[in-house]
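= Tokenised fold =
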Amino acid sequence: MARSLLEPKGVTRHESARWHLTLASLESGETARAIATARDLTASLWERKQGEAPPSALREAFLDLLRRRGYFVSTPDEFATSLMEIESLGEGFDLHDLARQLATLDLVASQCLRLTPQPQFPELHPFAPLCPCGQHPLKSL
């Protein structure tokens, strides 16, 4: 299969499409689809040990989703309070599961593979137990 000259080395069209689908899912409020595509992306990045950096719009799309769902995220304190509430609702609550998956994806991209110079979602790190490599416990970052 021919590769586009515009695609970064190590990036597949399928992976680029997953990033865009994850972003579109967040923007449209489809949390189940966002969780699934973020999970697929995490697995693909981890398996291939390379890939494309997450789009910077991912963070803003997540914050917009929280705003639309009635959470306050305008200041770091408001965001932290909203995340504590979401975390208290636990697994099975869609925003909790989404935060967990985005935290894991962020850790793989920023800490394991160094695709980004810094995490996009450091506030979400308490949601994920460990990076797939086992060397980056999110709670200690």
Observations:
- The mean pLDDT is 81.
- The chain has one domain: 13-140.
- The CA atoms of residues 130 and 136 lie 6 Å apart.
- The radius of gyration is 15 Å.
